[in-house]
From TrEMBL:
Stated family: Belongs to the FliP/MopC/SpaP family.
Protein name: Flagellar biosynthetic protein FliP
Coiled-coil stretches noted in the UniProt entry, renumbered to this chain: none
Single GO BP term: bacterial-type flagellum organization
Organism field: Occallatibacter riparius
Location in the cell: Cell membrane; Bacterial flagellum basal body
Keyword Transmembrane helix attributed: yes
Chief location bin: membrane
Membrane protein topology class: Multi-pass membrane protein
Gene: fliP
Keywords: Bacterial flagellum, Bacterial flagellum biogenesis, Bacterial flagellum protein export, Cell membrane, Cell projection, Cilium, Flagellum, Membrane, Protein transport, Transmembrane, Transmembrane helix, Transport
Length: 232
């Protein structure tokens, strides 16, 4: 009996380090889950802030307001179209990210942090290409960052908000130009209905079908998509 107890005690000694190593190896698992869930939560904001989705959604909103159709096309339709156009525009950038960061990380050539740094560079260059110098200077001064030797030296916390401001400005500029012909139709329709004494029928009831007809006749969706793609 004593021999069996001694053997069991000796056999349990080497098992303790293995048990401890297994427990300590899984300590980072909850933090990994928290990080992934946080990233998934912030993914829509990241997608909105670092892609052409900002400009596209602003322009589509102005178009629907100019046409006078409150719910047609629906938000889901416009968002789906904006996402597909964003995917189309970002395909070259995503290809570079895959070549420079994802594939080396899968093959074990680089670590996770190195993959993040490498993958951020193509996206950063894309945003710098469309970010205005005025907006970059604004956030550089607000962040008390020394003047860089080149725009590539700017951190992402400066590039991302500057890019969003630049895209908002571009989207509003396109939307204003898009709004003008439809506003002209509204003004002409209101003048005609008022001059002939048609006060019982609101001018918007007459102008909305005319605006939709004009938009369809000139193949407006094709022209709008072509103009938006050429703006990048």
């Amino acid at each position: 009996m004593v021999v069996l107890l001694a053997a069991a005690r000796n056999a349990s000694v080497p098992l303790l380090p293995d048990l401890n190593s297994k427990l300590h190896a899984s300590d980072s698992t909850p933090w990994t889950i928290v990080f992934v869930l946080t990233l998934i939560t912030l993914l829509p904001a990241i997608l909105m802030a670092m892609t052409p989705l900002v400009r596209l959604t602003v322009v589509f909103h102005f178009l629907r307001q100019a046409l006078g159709t409150q719910t047609a096309p629906s938000n889901t339709t416009l968002l789906g179209l904006a996402l597909m156009m964003t995917w189309f525009l970002m395909t070259p950038v995503l290809t570079l990210v895959d070549q420079q960061a994802v594939e080396p990380f899968r093959s074990g050539q680089i670590t996770g942090m190195e993959a993040i740094d490498r993958g951020a560079q193509p996206v950063k260059h894309f945003m710098l290409h469309y970010a205005r110098e005025k907006d970059l200077a604004l956030f550089t001064a607000a962040g008390q960052i020394q003047r860089p030797n080149s725009p590539d030296d700017l951190p992402m916390r400066v590039v991302i908000p500057a890019y969003v401001l630049s895209e908002l400005k571009a989207g509003f500029a396109i939307g204003a130009v898009l709004f003008l012909p439809f506003l002209l139709i509204d003004m002409v329709t209101a003048s005609i209905t008022t001059s002939i004494g048609m006060f019982q029928l609101p001018p918007v009831v007459v102008s909305t079908p005319l605006k939709i007809l004009l938009f369809v006749m000139v193949d407006g969706w094709n022209l709008l998509a072509s103009s938006l793609l050429k703006s990048f």
